[in-house]
Specification:
1 helix, about 0% strand, about 70 residues, mainly alpha
Amino acid sequence: MTPDQLYTIIGSVVAVGISLAVLILRATSRIDRVQSEGAADRRALQASMDTFRTEMQRLAERQSRLEGATGD
């Protein structure tokens, strides 16, 4: 095996290794971004559910007062 062939093989292995590393980093970055977007969506949904729960509680209290006032 000549030195040129050896350098070609080593260069190819290094290039493939770097390419795989870049692909792994990009995939990890995308996963992190999707997870953070999902967390933001869950927080927004939770906030809207809290608001809904509060409004339903108020409605139930008003209905209870009205039913109690009419003697039913």
